[in-house]
Amino acid sequence: MSQARCHLRAALFLAAVSPRGATTGVTARRGLSAWPAPQEPGMEYQVEDLDQLNIIHVTGTKGKGSTCAFTERVLRSYGLKTGFFSSPHLVQVRERIRINGQPISPELFTKHFWHLYHRLEETKDGSSCVSMPAYFRFLTLMAFHIFLQEKVDLAVVEVGIGGAYDCTNIIRKPVVCGVSSLGIDHTSLLGDTVEEIAWQKGGIFKVPGSPGERRYLDGLGLALKAQHGVPAFTVLQPDGPLAVLRDRAQQISCPLYLCPPLEALEEGGPPLTLGLDGEHQRFNAALALQLARCWLQQKGHQGLGELKVSRPSVLRQMPLAPVFQPTPHMRHGLRDTEWLGRTQVLRRGPLTWYLDGAHTTSSVQACVRWFRQALHRGQRPSRGPEVRILLFNSTGDRDSAALLKLLQPCQFDYAVFCPNLTEVSSAGNADQQNFMVTLDQVLLRCLAHQQYWSHLAEAQASPDLWSPPSPEPGEPTSSLLASHPPCTHSTSSLVFSCISHALQWISQGRDPVLQPPSPPQGLLAHPVAGSGASVLREAAAIHVLVTGSLHLVGGVLKLLEPALSQ
């Protein structure tokens, strides 16, 4: 069997082993007790073996992936061999497990997948109806195994869902922990309030101390108690969840610090350049710098510079993390960070694709600010109309109507809805299969999104209920709105059965890279699709915001960037 077919078969088996998701609770224990595969010397581990991975453990509601990406890239700039476990993947499942910033190769994925799969088969409990760990738990075990086999200097590990009961929380002794911005998400698992969610996130704080942790605390000039937990950092949060995090940390003597804003670290030096766009990324970068510096100091690295504040002040009953001058390595790491699908822009002829996997209220708000600012900064065509298009989907227990309402100020000319399916047929597309839903279910969800959008447009058209959306300072309004007062503007909407059909309609053959097969019969049968196609073919500029789901963004990237599938 060819290597490519072996890899495809492994991906298909992974998609089918058991339901997806970062399964919580004690059921994670079975997979860990059976971990990992036989047939190779040194492949029988204990949970304590994870200690040698020198882990940075990061949770949060939004920005935790970007924080991890910044942290990994900064530490890699020091010449360290890094492992990085993240979720979800955008195009290929191999993206979740990275060595030195690159997804593991198909050969490495295939090799370690089958070793782990067969080992779990051998240790299966005959009395259990579940034959394999769930999708996310399986990948977590696989990531730890690969990082140990590849002898990385450190591993940056992103929590799947929550923290306290997430299967990544089998880690006993991380070097440092981080909590990015908190908000409402995964309410069916984590709770209905931000405070309940904060309790779950604070579950990654750890008790045991180490000489390295004592060295870090000594460096801050803090008095030591008999035992200290693993240092942890968080960004500024609302008072309620911040108090919950503080209490969780105090219960186990975990030193928790509040990150100062990035501006404080820029004082006395040139501004920091970030590889990821958007003002919200500055919070993630500030957290990443604290995590990276703490890790380096605990591991005895020199040349980190003097702290600007030796004894942090206390804000909201929580000590402030140290202010320091970022080193050249740190600056280069932040500048060179890449994280696909987050505030990403692709310019293709008259089309500009804005890709952001925002899927919570706060992250969609940040996405809207980024998109409007990007439009304001961009060059307007000298002649011809501009068109704005929203491509949206949302899954799970998220409040789609609330997310769509936040997107209305962008003044889209067309709203397009489709499932997170690249093609109607999923044959040969193992990395993006989801056996938990049917095509009918996801299409009904898209129709509900279209209905929400129509209701919002009707409400917006009523001056008694809505005021006209206010543009950013100097922001151009969409040219298709020029002949209509803002309060009477309505967005045409369409539903397509897959991402490929949606992109074919949006691009109208004008994207030089996107070369899909001939459009299906009847693609333009709907009056809106037919009239819209004429508008799109004549537009001087087409701005497309893709948001609402990282899986949607991944499907779009699969078609717009074919190299990512190789």
From TrEMBL:
InterPro entries for the chain: Folylpolyglutamate_synth, Folylpolyglutamate_synth_CS, Folylpolyglutamate_synth_euk, Mur-like_cat_sf, Mur_ligase_C_dom_sf
Keywords: ATP-binding, Cytoplasm, Ligase, Magnesium, Membrane, Metal-binding, Mitochondrion, Mitochondrion inner membrane, Nucleotide-binding, One-carbon metabolism, Signal
Region (Disordered): 464-485
Catalytic activity annotation: (6S)-5,6,7,8-tetrahydrofolyl-(gamma-L-Glu)(n) + L-glutamate + ATP = (6S)-5,6,7,8-tetrahydrofolyl-(gamma-L-Glu)(n+1) + ADP + phosphate + H(+)
Phylogenetic lineage: Eukaryota, Metazoa, Chordata, Craniata, Vertebrata
Name of protein: Folylpolyglutamate synthase
Cofactor: a monovalent cation
Gene: FPGS
EC number annotated for this UniProt entry: 6.3.2.17
Residue positions binding ATP: 342, 356
Gene Ontology biological-process annotations: one-carbon metabolic process
Record's subcellular location: Cytoplasm; Mitochondrion inner membrane; Mitochondrion matrix
GO cellular component term, pick one: cytosol
Pathway(s) annotated for this protein in UniProt: Cofactor biosynthesis; tetrahydrofolylpolyglutamate biosynthesis
Protein family: Belongs to the folylpolyglutamate synthase family.
Signal peptide positions on this chain: 1-22
SUPFAM superfamilies: MurD-like peptide ligases, catalytic domain, MurD-like peptide ligases, peptide-binding domain
Top-level taxon in the UniProt lineage: Eukaryota
Gene Ontology terms for molecular function: ATP binding; metal ion binding; tetrahydrofolylpolyglutamate synthase activity
Cofactor mode of binding and number, as noted: A monovalent cation.
Organism for this UniProt entry: Zalophus californianus
Function in brief: Catalyzes conversion of folates to polyglutamate derivatives allowing concentration of folate compounds in the cell and the intracellular retention of these cofactors, which are important substrates for most of the folate-dependent enzymes that are involved in one-carbon transfer reactions involved in purine, pyrimidine and amino acid synthesis.
Residues at which Mg(2+) binds: 87, 158, 186
